[in-house]
Amino acid sequence: MVSRRALISWCLYDWANSAFPTVIITFVFATYYTSSVAADKVIGTAHWGYAMSLSALTVAFAAPVFGAIADKGSGRKPWLGFFTALCVILSAALWMVEPNPSYALLALIVAGLANFAFETGMVFYNAMLPGLGPQSHIGRISGWGWGLGYFGGLLCLALTLVGFVQPETPLFGLDKETAEHVRAAAILVAVWYAVFSIPLFLFTPDKAKGGGSFLNAVKTGLNELMATLRQVRGYGDIVRFLIARMIYTDGLNTLFAFGGIYAAGSFGMELNEIIIFAIGMNVTAGIGAAAFGWVDDAIGPKKTIMIALIGLTALSTALLIVEGKTLFWIFGLPLGLFVGPAQAASRSMMARLAPEHLRTEMFGLFAFSGKATAFLGPALLGAVAAAFDSQRAGMATILVFFAVGMILLLRVPES
Asked: Which of 289, 256, 370 is closest to 22 using CA atoms?
């Protein structure tokens, strides 16, 4: 087991990088792009969605390749360092995006590339998990990291809102006319990500370095990946788990993407209420991820994921039935308690299933399973909502993904 300092440094990277999806991809910059940069909100929403989908699709196919190369090369930290630096630089570059449609293409390219760097870096970060402690502690380590990530992202978001977005006079006298107070969020994220990721590179050990040159690692890694794919039956347990995860993750991603839309359309919630609710749900998700880490180690990740999916299904069903904002808050906030464990326990289960010599490659396939069919959930939701002319009918499709994911997960062994 590594030292406590090394373990804290690894978890702190989750705190560091969560600022990017929270501030850039989900709340501040995405909203700024659609409302102030794009020609209009409808076009902006569509183009932002296309850019993020293309970025995710690229990650899905590139991540296994990078993972296979890293397994045969000089370790994971050099790759993680490269993609971290790339995401930091591209995040800072979003400062250049002024509130004018002429900057729309620049915003989409830079944000899409930054998201690719962020997601790809996670492959190497996640692959370090099995080496941080004994099997009996993997669940809580994953949960600690994931929980810390939720709180790190929220704190960076809070600093953005309090320091730049909400005040009449933003910090450093930034010009609101040219949206400097909003664009500064990109600089804050870049600094936050860079500073808090440093401890991992200083104190968390990497796997033993492989011999040979970089080109040899590329050749050997790609050959290994092709061999793995050809002999996929030999990794049947992992394949079954990845398929199950692909399905229930589609449900989770769709829930994230359309939760705010559903709250506004079916419960009449205003934007400020939705933001407050999102912050509250992130808090409960962080608590759930950290607390269920011990449950993961006690009963295993598979049972933990099943408990999380059952909880998500029950609360989502309630939200499809109830009326009124009060009941939405009552049943909506506890959803977070099960969202975090579903994600953190999935990571720890992959860490337990992956063969040691193929860990990064397998986490590349893990990334693939989270992105390959990301279009399916939103597409099915939209089709059903249109067919029945009902948001609630569309949101009900999420339950199908949870149910199918649980059924498939039943066939996967614990380790």
From this structure: 256
